[in-house]
Amino acid sequence: MPTQPDIAPPPLLDLDEPPPYGVLNPDGASDVLLLCEHALPRIPRRLAHLGLPKSERMRHIGWDIGALALARDLSARLDAALFHTGYSRLVVDCNRPLDNPSLMPEISETTAIPGNRGLAATDRAERLETLFHPFQSAVSRRLDLRSAAGKPTFVVGVHSYTPVYKGLPRPWHAGIFYAGATEFAGRLIGALAQESGLVIGDNEPYRIDHDDYTVPVHGDARGLPALLIEVRHDLISTAQGVADWAERLERCLRLSMGAQT
Ligand SMILES: [Zn+2]
Q1: Does the residue 9 lie in any domain?
Q2: DSSP SS3 for 228
Q3: Domain for residue 74, yes or no?
Q4: Least C-beta-crowded within 10 Å: which of 38, 118, 171, 261?
Q5: Ligand 1: distance of its center to the CA of 214 in Å?
Q6: Distance of CA 70 from the midpoint of ligand 1 (Å)
């Protein structure tokens, strides 16, 4: 009697679930290439919400509140390509290197993530193959194409952050985070500082280092100016707030890139 073939386990994403990442305006004319690595709080159905209640999944540990709306608006205003993730940073964080403990965090801020506890190597590999690598490869391919076409690129990650972290209030309205791109970042910080009433962080409240992926890999390693913009999420939690910040960041980014853009 013939043996039954092994039944393959179900894939991480069902066929009716959204794709691992999204792309808007890939052939946009702008020299800016926008990334949004913490765009959405969605969790693959098979992972059963990672064992978290909705109140935890929807707060800032699950995604950057308002960041995708801001990135979309900026993409339209600048005519810039935008690559964004499709699933929560709690499933796999697309702005972390592969050896980083917070790539698939067992604890985020002060919340234990039951569905990430003691993950098997096969589970980790599946999340990387399904979600992390497709996003990074899409960005890399686009950067390769732009480079081959002789097109300059400024890599800009769009993020938001919580006004209060582990009980401590943060005074900045927005922060610019960078490592190698000191000139580009300096011009952008200078432009934002001209806006009335704003407190802008310069690599505060943390620094870009080996715990990041976008800036070191997609930017600095390629010799491209790269930075992250983080806006305090209570400032972009309404449509008006998003529009105000998109208009401001468009103006300041154009100033920072030089007159030709
Ligand atoms: Zn973020």
Answers
A1: no
A2: strand
A3: yes
A4: 118
A5: 11
A6: 13
**Cα 26 to ligand 1 centre (Å):** 21
Residues 33 and 143 sit within 8 Å (Cβ to Cβ): yes
Per-residue tokens: 57: 């999944």
Q: How far is the CA of 179 from the centre of ligand 1 (A)?
A: 16
Residue 7 falls within a domain, yes or no? no
**Total domains, the chain:** 1
Band of pLDDT at residue 260, cut at 50, 70 and 90:
very low
Centroid of ligand 1 to alpha carbon of 255 (angstroms): 24
- With respect to residue 130, please indicate whether it lies within any of the assigned structural domains: yes
What digits encode the pLDDT tens for the residues 208-233? 878 999 999 999 999 999 999 999 99
The answer to whether residues 231 and 70 touch, using CB atoms and an 8 Å cutoff, is yes
Examine the pLDDT at 77 and tell me if it is beyond 60. yes
| Residues bordering ligand 1, an ion, CB closer than 5 Å | 38, 64, 159
Beta bridge partners of 107: 112
